[in-house]
Amino acid sequence: MIAGSPPRRKTPAAICLIGLALGFLCIFLLLPLLTVFVEALSKGLGPFLEALAEPDALSAIRLTLLVAAIAVPLNVAFGLAASWAIAKFDFPGRSVLVTFIDLPFSVSPVVAGLVYILLFGMNGLLGPVLREYDIQIIFAVPGIVLATVFVTFPFVARELIPLMQEQGRDDEEAALSLGATGFQTFCKVTLPNIRWGLLYGVLLCNARAMGEFGAVSVVSGHLRGLTNTMPLHVEILYNEYNFVAAFAVASLLALLALVTLVVKTALEWRFSYVRQGAGS
Fold this sequence. Notes:
Layout: H1 12-40, H2 45-53, H3 55-88, H4 94-101, H5 103-106, H6 109-120, H7 127-132, H8 141-152, H9 154-167, H10 170-177, H11 182-211, H12 214-220, H13 230-239, H14 243-279
């Protein structure tokens, strides 16, 4: 809208589209989310807290946080390196690297889990070597971490690549011409310019890491109290008709998703505010 011009009147078509969008959100997003919390608290606060304090639930929560704590920093390191190389340098195979970064978006997580079993399973390609050195990857925490890293590694890079390409190379070239080293240029020039985009990518990566089901389900072995993350624990409880406990753990995941959404919105607002300030 042009500054100083009167606000546009909403046409009937615009009102219908807005109502349709709001109705879609209520039916397919808000209503299921509300149902999770209602079912979790259907028998009161006591059973809800008991379900979360149960040893297998605590083990699933700890494992989920552990996997996220390992996978997210690894993806941050990869995302920073890949986005910096792609946005700031020209090299052979650059487009191939971009394609590989997008690979987890096009491959089913279940297929990714099966690939890890074919590679690291006891009867897989590297199985004899792993047996010889008594190393277990599949049906153990390392396999869960590998599967989670695979399905989440595009998030940081995909947030940073367009941002760094838009910013260009002028600031880095100016710093290098003034005698700064490559590491100094990255820490003092590149990193401050991408900090909000980096935080946004980390947030999305962490949310996917904690909520991943398909790939983790294949490589975990569903060992209760050992290799079950929160989504897998919810599935087991639901299959056992322990609905209150299942929805209690699911509500914790939903609460984490809501927190992620709030922080994401705040970061988007802050990022847009910074960009508008830089452009004015």
